[in-house]
Design goal:
CATH class of the domain at 9-134 and 159-188 and 237-248: Alpha Beta
CATH superfamily of the domain at 9-134 and 159-188 and 237-248: Vaccinia Virus protein VP39
Bound molecules: benzoic acid
Mean pLDDT: 93
Strand order of the largest sheet: 3-2-1-4-5-10-6
Order of helices and strands: HHHEHEHEEHEHHEEHHEEE
Length: 253
């Protein structure tokens, strides 16, 4: 799910399926139970929804990308196109689960409000997304290339990578009890930096003239190579996760 731009499900599957694979520890934190009703917020291609269903839970999957929702439906999931800031559920779910999505939602307060509204009393909100310092090298490299080329416009950062204290405060202010919240450094191998940019930074590159997109990516690659690339491990990006487990407070019943 992305709030600002859409991606293509085939490109995503070829080059970004690591995102789902690395989400399995978040399912452990969710600890789904048989017959629980769980919302997968930003289900992507549905890989993790299918994993959650294996516990006997009933999963409803939503994503902002119609392509991704179509992929999820092909896996037999009950899926629909919906944004985290416009969820249309009321007191329905035992848990809301979200992996690698909430950093795209810049109105975090509204997303949290929507999640709370979707949860039953005592319902759990379990998730992981980019935390403070996430992809710092990539952000700085893109910033540098924009500064070198004023004709590309401004570097507009579409992401929300909060500190754990900041996100915990937002959750608590909206009536969640935070049971666990941690920042986790997770250097992440990716296939290729230019493909990563194509998938995840196409919104950032939108004002770069088409004829200059390749050279934009090449410049970013050149800046990052000494830092993030080795012959032994290939590209390994400085991902930082914010993982949390919260519960809708009792007095909200
Ligand atoms: C992330 O999962 O942290 C992420 C992925 C793509 C763009 C930005 C962040």
């Amino acid at each position: 799910m992305k709030e600002s731009n859409q991606w293509n499900a085939n490109e995503y599957n070829k080059n970004a399926d690591f995102v789902s694979k690395l989400g399995l520890p978040v399912i452990n934190l969710l600890a789904p139970k048989k017959d629980e009703k769980i919302l997968d917020l930003g289900c992507g291609d549905g890989t993790l929804s299918v994993e959650i269903q294996k516990y006997g839970s009933q999963v409803i999957a939503v994503d902002l990308s119609p392509d991704m929702v179509a992929k999820s439906k092909k896996k037999g999931l009950k899926a629909s196109v919906m944004s985290a800031t416009q969820l249309e559920f009321y007191n329905e779910f035992d848990a809301v689960f979200s992996n690698a999505v909430l950093h795209w939602v810049t109105d975090a307060r509204l997303a949290i409000k929507n999640v709370k509204q979707a949860l039953k009393a005592d319902g759990r909100f379990i998730g992981e997304f980019g935390g403070c310092g996430n992809i710092q090298s990539l952000q700085e490299a893109m910033q540098t290339v924009f500064e070198r080329h004023p004709e590309y416009g401004e570097f507009l950062n579409p992401w929300f990578f909060p500190k754990k204290e900041e996100y915990a405060k937002l959750l608590e202010e909206d009536g969640f009890c935070v049971h666990y919240i941690e920042i986790i450094d997770r250097p992440t191998p990716i296939g290729d930096i230019k493909e990563w940019l194509d998938i995840f930074a196409n919104g950032i590159m939108q004002n770069v003239p088409t004829s200059k997109k390749e050279s934009f990516k090449k410049e970013v690659e050149n800046i990052l190579k000494p830092k993030l690339f080795t012959q032994e491990n290939g590209w390994v990006v400085d991902y930082v996760r914010l993982r949390f487990a919260a519960q809708k407070e009792n007095n909200e019943k």
